[in-house]
Amino acid sequence: MRIKITVSYKGTNYCGFQIQQNGNTVQEELENAIYKITGEKSTVIPSGRTDSGVHALGQVAHFDTNSNIPPEKFTSALNAYLPKDIRVQKSEPANVNFHARYSAKRKTYCYTYYFAEQDNPLISEFCERVNKPLNIELMKKAALYLKGTHDFAGFTNTGSFVNNTVRTLYNIKIKTEKEEIEKVKIYINGNGFLYNMVRIIASTLKDVGLGKKPPQIIKNIIQTGNRNLASPTAPPNGLCLLFVEYDI
Q1: What distance in Å separates the CA atoms of residue 20 and residue 211, rounded to the nearest whole number?
Q2: Any catalytic annotation for residue 51?
Q3: What whole-number distance in Å separates Cα of residue 159 and Cα of residue 11?
Q4: 92 with 3: CB under 8 angstroms?
Q5: What's the rounded Cα separation, in Å, for the pair 219 and 210?
Q6: Choosing from 51, 85, 207, 247, which is the catalytic residue?
Q7: Is the pTM of this model over 0.85?
Q8: What b/e readout covers 142-175, taking b as 16+ CB neighbours within 10 angstroms?
Q9: In order along the chain (248 residues), what is the average pLDDT of each group of 10 residues?
Q10: DSSP code of 44?
């Protein structure tokens, strides 16, 4: 039986999703919980790897089991053995042909900046600080260049072992929140993302908003594939995988 799970986690204390030799990971915690419930060593396959320190609201994964536990009961069963910063939100049966990674059609990430002169310990785990307000209109102009199908080689770091760097971004929204503290949220929806791609885009858009780069720099990066024209990779704490879409 194949089980599909939707998982939320705070990535602060984890070295990413995928199991590594050194450091605790989300995948390891999930597989340990499954073993405690079923006695089986199941492999948890995610929709994609999230890096160290990156969070998820709706990561999707699957695993196979011979257990007779009803699929929907895995939610509470797994949560009983998982640490508090990892929670299964939903468990359900999946077709044997379903694959959390290869069946995914779209993913949506959000990167969040907040404006403050000093770090705010109550939100700094989930947002990256800027010390002066961002020009949202300039950021929106720059974001227009990103929409569509392009070669995003200039927005990835070394370590992305892929042959094809062409991806499609369906939508990019930049929104502000002004409640207790001013935040700028960058929502990016696409059919797939390269290594560090969202964090590099977010950092470059931030520099546009700070007046350090012109909006058309995005167009130049896409046309030339020159990583040096883009900004340094934004820190992981501001990034969250919001949700994954399958049947469009």
Answers
A1: 39
A2: yes
A3: 21
A4: yes
A5: 18
A6: 51
A7: yes
A8: bbebbeeebebbbbbeeeeeeeebebebeebebe
A9: 98 94 94 97 96 97 97 98 98 96 97 95 95 96 98 88 91 92 96 96 98 98 96 98 90
A10: P
